Fold:
Amino acid sequence: MADLIKIYSDNPNPKEIQRVVNILKKGGLVIYPTDTVYGLGCDITNIKALERIARIKGVKLEKANFSFICKDLSNLSDYVKQINTSTFKILKRALPGAYTFILPGSKNLPNPFKKRKTVGIRVPDNSIILSLVAVLGNPIVSTSIRDEDDILEYTTDPELILEKWDNLVDVVIDGGYGDNEASTVIDLSENEPQIIREGKGSLEIF
Structure:
């Protein structure tokens, strides 16, 4: 049975943030709001938690296209090879925001992702998830929670999310209704930016 924890985005309660962080540190899985759709995530350093998410998604962990949620661009050097000035300027303009940027991965990636040449990085414009990452002290591995419904691709109501995910995760954060449009995905791992998926993030950042 998952806990439903109400946290307000305009002023996240530090006690509730710490409560969720403690669960993450113990290998818990958390569903949380972002500036786009609700996401499912865990502590990037906890292999068993990573394996749980991979099983839920029906993928091999080594091949999973999970993104890393960072609190700001200072985490980049941990997981990303040195990037050029123009790439950094794009990131600076766009983040925090509704984007996932694919960047060249470094040798410091967590063990399950060591062989990956690229990594997806997110810095959402949402104070709840950014507070979680800041207090946790390292990024959260993240994936969107999709819906099998043909009309609604993403569930936006936290209580409906709890109903569906109750036996699969440890916490659902109620941060209000989510969006039903995913992030814009941009590949910056090569010389020229490539639009992989147009979503909520505007393409006017270029």
Notes: Residues 24 and 120 are 21 Å apart (CA to CA). The mean pLDDT is 93. The two ends are 45 Å apart (CA to CA). DSSP finds six helices and ten strands in the chain.
